[in-house]
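ok so dumb question maybe but i'm new to this and my supervisor (M.) told me to 'just get the structure for PD40 domain-containing protein' and walked off. so i did the thing. is this what she meant?? sequence i used:
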Amino acid sequence: MTKFLRFVVSEVLRERADGLKESILGEAVFDRGEAFDPRIDPIVRVQAAKLRTRLQEYYSEQGTADPVEIELPKGTYVPIFRKRTTAAPALPESGFPVAGPVVQATEKPAAGAGFGRRGNLLVAAISTLAVVGVLFLYSRTTSDKQAPLRFTQLTYHRGATSFPALSRDGKLLVYSSDRESTHFSIWGQRVGDGTPVRITHHDADDLTPDISPDSRLIVFRSRQDGGGIYLISVDGREERRIADHAWMPRFSPDGAWISCLAARPGTDGVLLAIPAAGGRPYEVATGNVAPVGSPVWSADGQSLLFLGSVNNPGRGPRSYDWYLVPRIGGEAVSVGFRQALTSAGLGPPERELAPGDWNLDTVVFSFPRDSSAGIWKVTLKQGSRTIQGPALPMTSGSAIEACPRLSARGELLFQREDLESWVFAVPLDPATGLPAGDPARITEDAFPASHGLFPALSSSGQQVTFAHSNLGEYELVTRDLSTGRDTVLARLGKSLDRPLISKDGKRALLRGNPPKPETIYAASAGSVPVPRECKTCGRLEDWSADGRWLLYNNASMTSLMLMDWNSGATVEWIRYAPQRLTRAVFSRDGRRVAVAIDGSGGFLIPFDPHRVPSRNEWVQASDDADAQYLDWSPDGGSIYYFSRRDGYQCLWRREVKPESARAGDALAILHFHHNDHAPWSGWLSVANGKAAFVITEPRANVWMATTSSGKPF
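this is what came out, is it supposed to look like this??
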């Protein structure tokens, strides 16, 4: 039914309402095929009636504050949009004002009336449809034992408002936001009666705030001066730095301690406990488990729950789970999060699945699916060491819902992201390798995520291939940049994995499409994809310029494999730390491979298909630990990559000395010292005279969910 709604709204916004006939909907929405006869099969009429009823239910409950109402009148499949007005919140003389409009009235235009300007209609309708995508059919996707939820939007900002936290009394909301600035600052507002007030004023991003139990202090991470943890009074007048190179701070329930993760060379990080009143931090020992995700406190403040991984170097792929450890340190114990996910049919946890918050017996977290994410929960009783039962959904996850928090009173807070991304390109001077102009947008339609476009330039720089989302399904499109003509290279279905594009832009290699991970498909425009068996295949990395050699990860993500595409012969080429390789790319002459290792930087490795290189032959090309995606210049004389080494995601370049294959000094060539339009994903493709990348505009706001019964989750 959600697909039905998205399709009819999208067709109207594209000015194709005349095509919304029963026969067309049967094929496009319900996959009935060309033989569909609406006189025999009533599925469109039946589902349209259900959709009308469900829309009425939604706008009378969760959607009462939506700015636009979508209606599907009887006798037609063309939706109309009704603008609704809201009263502006009152502005008190002092203090933090409240979020959330009060619905005052609903306009009743004549049937079929719009907004006058199509641009306003487009923005409003897409906004409403996004909200419906999150909350529509919610009661059908949550646990039967859970009371229906009431949703309230707390912040209204076209940029990014993220990392919410609520005071214990439920009166003060704090968060990170890029309003009034090119970077994130800490903001606060009174829930129910006020407007946002800026608390921090740094020239760097301030993130992940938390409020002390007495509502007097805010702890947060700042990227200024190398990054660290800061304490500031709620009024913003007193501030001090309490830890260097640390992140994800949380107050203990009694406010006496602050937990966080901190950097230590050669590790993912360590757990720290910092006295809130001042004093030296101490490391919370976790035994043989490496902490990799944010720690949250038990209700009694005596234990910490965190995402971790057992240290087992050289013993297969890295696995993650949630672990519980005493505040004073000790042997960390698994609480069975992997089993809870498996029981819910979600698969094992990944690196980003850290616990969001723990209140009473409920732990909440965000679980991603393709380009969306939903809020889930598990039951972990205080004093217990084992999760009970499977993970259960709390929201439908049609958008990106992340950073969940639970208040002491039981409210659920989360940020809801509507990311929009486009492919951009910047011209490069062939002589210097430096930008020769400003970045320009290549794609018109926004992609609903920061990851997934995967733009790939042809060697000439005249074509670019990228992923395109078409009504919930993906396809690879090659665009001729001189004529603007698009050619569909391959249809990917509902799942999207990193594709490989040949250097001429005419062929693509795809893994698991149809979804068979042991198969690679070679696709070209107008032809049926040709399968090739690859039982050890994980993510694909690169295809040599002559089309013969294929680099890919093994299924356990511990080795980079090399396949002779002509014969199918495969050999393990290099080994790396489990789950750490993020990109491997051939130089244009095929003599070297540049690899990016998360946390270690970039390396240049000589390529000879007839022998395996030793670890001693790896040459450090970049010491930027976050340089996850890199690419070569066409002449092999430089490498390009995105890095936050100056605090923002900027484009950097290093020359490679031919005689030693060593890289020179890093040079920032294109700055993005802001967050509203920035290359969040870091994906990069370099060709003759151009570099292509993805620019993302974040749209995130804070929402609150409560049970209709008023009981805590």
